[in-house]
Design goal:
The protein is of the alpha+beta class and 693 residues long. The protein has 5 domains: 276 residues, Rossmann fold (3-Layer(aba) Sandwich), CATH 3.40.50.300; 95 residues, Elongation Factor Tu (Ef-tu), domain 3, CATH 2.40.30; 67 residues, Alpha-Beta Plaits; 113 residues, 2-Layer Sandwich (Ribosomal Protein S5, domain 2); 82 residues, Alpha-Beta Plaits. The structure holds guanosine-5'-triphosphate (GTP) and magnesium ion.
């Protein structure tokens, strides 16, 4: 691909509710701009963007894909993101490197939860926004209704730059309101013809155009003066105003099209180069100098020192690890020595690429504002800043959401444990919202992610890529056992079966210790009733028993044991005998001390629209939760609660179905609490059953 100057580049991320047609749009855009010869379809699994086997299998996007298009001597770097909520991490990465968020809405379903969510993310990233009302060809497609909805939801600066010619089966093209031209799609989307605006649309066009011109002049005082004084405003002035309005967020341009039928797509490409910001239009990103700690601006200019940020890491079957980056300043050159300022380590760079779907094309260099990829970086991960060593600067990292759902994994075939470890850590490198933890206490590997689908995709990937099949289950909860009462008890281990026998005998006192102490051992032996050398064995016997648990196979905590008396045998006593005697005493004593189970409790914070509060609180109560408080959180409410961890593993799924995905939540460990007797019974019975097996 040709090299483009910084000001001729547009970085546009395609975002929106799942299934709104982002991937289909990119396919149509690539086709219309001549980048591909044949338009694939999501449903046929042959689009440029959705090339991953998991994407093809499910007909949805899972990972961010790049789709650069050349249009009228400009380069449009489209970044196609998944709409399904589980893959929100991809959207966060894409937004970091885009200069514009193009939000897709379906002309039938209009504003959906995902539409509002991506709007919010774009706001967080300070990105200019525009809308595409897609699927104008569908039955019941209604441009005006969706436009109205967009304006009601996102404000009156939502402004159509086009209106559709016809709708549903008769959707034929679009009218450009600024140039007053009709663009018809002909030849099944292969070509566009410019024609007179149809008679029956002229009045509507003038109406919309008048409103648009008003909103454009309002974004600029000088233009507004001219307008109010009745002076003529040139087309260039209007275009410049529209562009400035978009850049500053005072205008959100709206386009309408059908991706599937490739109608209106070229008009959008054209709109993008006219109205969407170039990297040079956007505020300079600010990094932090490694040397001085001072803020450093990174101007989108090839003559500035080089800086780039990695926003995604992929495992490519041919080139291996591939890091996708955006150059923020300077020039990134192939075969160069650069510096990873985040990790404070040099990196050797080989060939740079531009990327389209799964295809890469070598590039000798990429200038400020451009997006590309580099293979096989040693220590660089997602979010890292690459730069020159002498001008080392760190850009703020990309904030990815914390996982909300966990499952325990086990290999289907024994012996695959090691393979699981390596394959998961490879996937972890590609996906910052996926976390693997090894829980040594519960002897389980736990994978955590953003929802059912996310974890399902991960499992599909390790099967396909690494040939490891796994079983998933709800993670085991780290219950604890402790006591509420106290006792004085003896334990005696005695065996005489010819030859040397075994003899150990202790008296211990047991009582609860302060919570959090774990285990306290006090030695009160006077006069050698238990000889010195056997006392460590007594303690060890108790500690080992505590590890294994007494009533339900869980670790025992918060017990104080005092060794008070015992006896020994000159020949038959041994460390082992005392260990066993102590263990026997402990187990018996434990049962006599009103044993109970403890369970981990987590703090839960749910952020939820007001109307769901009743359902959320009812559900938390059902999950044995305790509501701690409620407070307003922007236009939402925040519910704070504490709930048993055991009840929260599937909360992500429950919350999503209760609120159509509008709510979010976090959990953090709080403390341990006594398990209610009826629940404890079930846990103890299950442990006993497992023991038998
Ligand atoms: N009728 C019609 N269908 C469309 C249009 N655009 C997309 N579709 C269909 O809508 C479905 C979803 O399209 P995608 O392009 O995968 O949507 P997406 O926004 O990329 O979906 P995710 O990436 O999963 O969020 C597919 O069945 C498409 O064929 C359109 O303009 N008209
Ligand atoms: Mg898609």
């Amino acid at each position: 691909m040709k090299q483009y100057a910084t000001e001729d580049i547009r970085n546009i991320c395609l975002v929106g509710h799942g299934g709104s047609g982002k991937t289909s749009f990119l396919e149509a855009a690539l086709y219309s701009s001549g980048a591909i010869d044949r338009m694939g379809r999501v449903d046929e699994g042959n689009t440029t963007s959705d090339h991953d086997p998991e994407e093809i299998k499910r007909s949805i996007s899972i990972a961010t894909s790049l789709g650069p298009c050349e249009w009228k001597d400009r380069k449009l770097n489209f970044i196609d993101t998944p709409g399904y909520f589980d893959f929100v991490g991809e959207v966060k990465g894409a937004m970091r490197v885009a200069d514009m968020a193009l939000i897709f809405a379906c002309a039938v379903s209009g504003v959906e939860v995902g539409t509002e969510k991506v709007w919010g993310y774009a706001e967080e990233n300070n990105l200019p926004k525009g809308f595409v009302i897609n699927k104008m060809d569908r039955e019941n497609a209604n441009f005006e209704r969706v436009l109205e909805q967009l304006r009601n939801t996102f404000g009156s600066n939502v402004a159509p730059f086009q209106i559709p010619i016809g709708a549903e089966n008769n959707f034929a093209g679009v009218v450009d309101l600024l140039t007053k031209t009709a663009f018809y799609s002909v030849d099944g989307g292969k070509k566009v013809e410019e024609r007179e605006v149809p008679e029956d649309l002229v009045e509507k066009m003038e109406q919309y155009r008048g409103a648009l011109i008003e909103s454009i002049v309002e974004t600029d005082d000088e233009l507004l003066m001219k307008y109010l004084e009745g002076e003529t405003i040139s087309d260039e002035e209007i275009d410049r105003g529209a562009r400035l309005g978009t850049l500053t967020g005072k205008l959100c341009p709206v386009f309408c099209l059908s991706s599937l039928r490739n109608i209106g797509v070229r008009s959008l490409l054209h709109g993008a180069i006219r109205f969407f910001p170039a990297p040079t239009d956007r505020p300079n990103p600010v990094g932090k100098s490694l040397k001085t700690g001072e803020p450093v601006e990174l101007p989108a200019s090839p003559s500035a020192p080089f800086s780039a940020q990695v926003f995604k890491t992929m495992a490519d079957p041919y080139v291996g690890k591939l890091s996708l980056f955006r150059v923020f300043s300077g020039v990134f050159k192939s075969d160069s020595q650069i510096y990873n300022a985040t990790k404070e380590t040099p990196e050797r760079v080989g060939q740079l690429f531009t990327v389209r779907g799964k295809n890469q094309e070598p590039a000798s260099e990429l200038v400020a504002g451009d997006i590309g990829a580099v293979a096989k970086l040693q220590s660089t991960g997602t979010g890292d800043t690459l730069c020159e060593k002498d001008n080392a600067v760190v850009l703020p990292g990309i904030v990815f959401p914390d996982p909300v759902m966990s499952l325990a994994v086990e290999p289907k075939s024994k012996g695959d444990e090691e393979k699981i470890g390596t394959s998961f850590s490879r996937l972890q490198e590609e996906d910052p919202t996926f976390v693997v933890t090894r829980d040594p206490e519960m002897k389980q590997t736990v994978i955590s992610g953003m929802g059912d689908m996310h974890l399902d995709v991960i499992v599909g990937r390790i099967a396909k890529k690494f040939g490891v099949e796994v079983n998933l289950s709800t993670p085991k909860v780290a219950y604890r056992e402790t006591i509420r009462g106290s006792t004085r008890i003896e334990g005696k281990h005695k065996k005489q079966s010819g030859g040397k026998g075994q003899f150990g005998h202790v008296w211990i006192e047991m009582e609860p210790s302060e919570p959090g102490v774990g285990f306290e051992f006090v030695d009160k032996i006077f006069g050698g009733s238990v000889p010195r050398q056997y006392i460590p064995a007594v303690e060890k016997g108790i500690r080992e028993t505590m590890e294994d648990g007494v009533i339900a196979g869980c670790k025992v905590v918060d017990v104080k044991v005092t060794l008070v008396d015992g006896s020994y045998h000159n020949v038959d006593s041994s460390e082992m005998a005392f260990k066993i005697a102590a263990s026997l005493a402990f187990k018996k004593g434990f049962m006599a001390c009103r044993p109970i189970l403890l369970e981990p409790i987590v703090n839960v914070e749910v952020i939820v629209p007001e109307e769901y509060m009743g359902d959320i609180i009812g559900d938390l109560n059902k999950k044995r939760g305790r509501i701690m408080g409620m407070e307003p959180h922007g236009s939402f409410q925040m519910v704070r609660a504490q709930a048993p961890q055991a009840e929260m593993f599937k909360y992500a799924t429950d919350l999503r179905s209760m609120t159509q995905g509008r709510a979010s939540f976090t959990t953090t460990p709080a403390h341990y609490e006594e398990v209610p007797a009826n629940v404890a019974e079930t846990i103890i019975a299950a442990a006993a059953k497992k023991d038998e097996e």
